[in-house]
Amino acid sequence: MELFDKITELKNEIIKEIKEAKNLNELKLAGEKNLSKKSPLNAMMAHIKDLVGEAKANFGQAMNKARNEVTEAYQNRQLELSEAEIKEKLSKEKIDITLPSVSYKMGGINPFYLIQDEIIDIFVSMGYEVKEGPDVETDYFNFERMNIPENHPAREMQDSFYITNSLLLRTHTSPAQAHAMDEKKGEPIKIICPGKCFRRDDDDVTHSHQFGQVEGLVVDKNINFGNLKATLELFLRKMFGEKREVRFRGSYFPFTEPSVEVDISCMECHGKGCPTCKGTGYIEILGAGMVHPNVLKMAGYDPKEYSGFAFGVGIERVAMLRYGIDDIRRIYQGDVRFIEQFTRK
Length: 345
Hints:
single chain, alpha+beta, BirA Bifunctional Protein, domain 2, seven-stranded mixed β-sheet, two-stranded antiparallel ribbon, 11 helices, 9 strands, 40% helix, 19% strand
């Protein structure tokens, strides 16, 4: 009987230890100590070799019963502690639904990027590929490849930020076109080049030392001025409305010949004349022309076989016309009150 009493006494001690566990971590330690193969209770099995017959069977039954009661006690305490832990966690994370909610305000998008993205979308839908270039360019790609050699009068039209004698902040996105033509190695090309440009200029309501351009270039066989005219009319009417009248005026750019300035009918007076268009009925919007043969030659194209057209539009100018912005500097000042007025279509 002493052996059976020892089993009962040990079982009760283990169950008491399990019930006194204050948290799951203490319970885990108690379980590792008393439910493993090397636990004190399992060590009692060593006495079975000293028993025979009915005593041996009774001992085995007593051991199984004790182990089952210990296991059940462990599982019950584990459930109790788990539920208590969840209740405590929920009480700490309780939310007072009577408190005022947090208001999240949707931000705006700078009109510069609204217009740039819209221009890109229009030309991509027309089959153009987007090519970008670095802000810092060599004199060779910025000027010479655009048919503006050293001492050319056209350089005076673009007062530049030079870093060294041969490096400068690009004055237009045209160098990206030159790089793209070099990559094509005389093959047809149809690209637009968006990006920022830099020229030394007095900042005022219509001028900035930094501005954005989207330039376009098409080079292939049998490209003519009619292709240029049709492309720009489609673009401008998508950008400003189907009722816009488009006018082409002769102009000069060193990298195109012939060159044109492109105007659209005034959105305010619809061509009748007003202060916005200075009484002319039209507003200048971009420059364009047929690619100069010298530009084609420098890029490896035979001007007798290939021709092309190019154009460039100022992003801020379009934004100011589209949204009635009175000062170009507002686009760069980062004033949230200004930017939050604009949202993507």
